[in-house]
Amino acid sequence: MVFKSMKELKEWLDFCDCAYLSEGGQGRCYKIGNKVYKIFLQYIEEDDDEITPYYKDDILQFSDIVNNTYIFPTDVIMVGEIVVGYITDYAPSMSLYKTDPLTVDLSLFERSLEITLPDIKTISDNGVLSFDVTYNILYGKDGFKVIDTLDYSKTNIDSDKLFAMNKDRFYHEIRLFLIDEYFDKFVSRNKFLCEMYNDPDASAVLFLREFRKALSENEGHEISKLSEAKKSMVRIRRKIPRYIREL
After folding, report:
1. What mean pLDDT do residues 96-106 have?
2. Beta strands of 94-247 (E only): which ranges?
3. Beta-carbon neighbour count of residue 135 at 10 Å?
4. Residue range 27-59, pLDDT digits in tens
5. What is 63-118 written as a DSSP string?
6. DSSP class of residue 28?
7. Cβ(129)–Cβ(170) under 8 Å?
């Protein structure tokens, strides 16, 4: 997609009646149809002192990798010969860090986790090293999606080692999400769970199963959502779920 000027691009966005989605450190995102258009802030703000060049081949280097979890750019947005943004598919999901863990159906959550594993293997077999997964995991009716993959890199690391690295980067966020400060004490007092939680090689799926089993035993009944584990949690009142939790 090529425009003659930033003015033309901005006029086109207005004409399309696009929906504003969000803004991060790199760019501002808009939704048009089933696509997301991300425009780099340095061109929106026209900050000539902080221009970082982007290249089409770099942005689209993973676009041919077929998977259902990692959302890679499918096209670039250009003004003349300059790449000012890119286009990806839209995922109708919510950021994991904005999701209340107490409300999640644990069975559906577990099945969604299982589905991501082949996709993590796929990108690893293609030599892709993930980066900055924190805050970029989405969760919804279609399971997990990972966005903002611009800083992912091509590497010659052995595929098995790369798979372990990519899996840990994804699963680490899942373990943090499940604990969410509500269950820090519960996990830290359970030697088996604590070891699994802190083991980078441990499967998040297995951790979830054992975590749910331990909570259910402590509650005296099978739980389907973390909100049902009232005896096991530390009561914390807050309107917005926090993120980046540690034991």
Report:
1. 92
2. 94-95, 128-129, 137-140, 143-146, 153-154
3. 15
4. 999 999 999 999 998 888 876 667 889 999 999
5. TT---SSB----EEEEETTEEEEEEEE----EEGGGS-GGGS-HHHHHHHHHHHHH
6. E
7. no
Given a cut of 50, whether residue 184 has pLDDT beyond it is yes
Return d(Cα 149, Cα 73) in angstroms, integer.
8
> What is the spatial distance between Cα 201 and Cα 221, in angstroms, rounded to a whole number?
30
| Half-sphere exposure for 127 (CA within 13 Å, toward CB) | 6
- What number does CATH give the domain 94-228? 1.10.510
- Residue 247 confidence (pLDDT): 45
**Angle formed by the axes of helices 106-125 and 204-219, nearest 10°:** 170
- Break the chain into its structural domains and give their ranges: 2-89, 94-228
Helix (H) / strand (E) containing 34: none
Question: Burial code of 66-97, b = ≥16 C-beta within 10 A, e = fewer?
Answer: ebebbbbbebbbbbeeebbbbbbebbebeebb
Question: Residues with Cβ < 8 Å from 213, sequence gap 6 or more?
Answer: none
Q: Provide the whole-model pTM.
A: 0.90
Residue 35, token pair as written in the block: 């696509």
Which option is the CATH number for 2-89: 1.20.950, 3.30.200, 3.40.30, 3.30.160?
Answer: 3.30.200
Q: Which of 136, 155, 158, 139 is nearest to 147 (CA)?
A: 136
Fold equal for 2-89 and 94-228: no
